Amino acid sequence: MKAYDMHENKEIEVTYDDLIDFLNNNRQIDLTLKAPVTDADGYLTWDKENWINIDGRKYQRNYFLGDRALRDYTHHNIYDLKNSFKPEEALKIEIN
């Protein structure tokens, strides 16, 4: 996968595990999705998300729609990431 490293100002090749390592080293991962996604309940629709590591064990996903940050967020553990963190489906990946 290709990702843009905002600190280095260059595009790099990354794997899923590389992105987890970035998260674990206090970097933020921004994913721009190919199309808006709606949750299973039909409550939340978003087209961008960012991921951060809260305390070394907990990850937080923040949601955005267009240029607007949504008030909703979710917490995940490392095992949840396999089901929820899907950079391979993103249109654009940025590492902040």
- State the strand order across the main sheet: 2-1-7-3-4-5-6
**Which geometry do the CA atoms define?**
globular
Secondary structure: number of strands: 7
Helix % is 10-25%
User: Beta-strand percentage?
Assistant: over 45%
- Based on secondary structure, the structural category is alpha+beta
With helices defined by DSSP (H or I, 4 residues minimum), what is the helix count?
2
Using only C-alpha atoms, the radius of gyration works out to: 13 Å
Terminal Cα span: 16 Å
Listing every helix as H and every strand as E from the N terminus to the C terminus, the arrangement reads: EEHEEEEHE
Architecture overview:
- This protein has 96 residues and is α+β, with helices and mostly antiparallel strands.
- It is built from two helices and seven strands, in the order E-E-H-E-E-E-E-H-E.
- A seven-stranded mixed sheet has the order 2-1-7-3-4-5-6.
Summarize the structure.
The protein is of the alpha+beta class and 96 residues long. The protein has two helices and seven strands.
Summarize the helices and strands and which ones pair or pack.
Layout: E1 2-5, E2 10-13, H1 16-24, E3 29-38, E4 45-53, E5 59-65, E6 68-76, H2 78-84, E7 90-95
Parallel strand pairs: 1-7
Antiparallel strand pairs: 1-2, 3-4, 3-7, 4-5, 5-6
Descriptive labels:
96 residues; alpha+beta; seven-stranded mixed sheet; 2 helices; globular
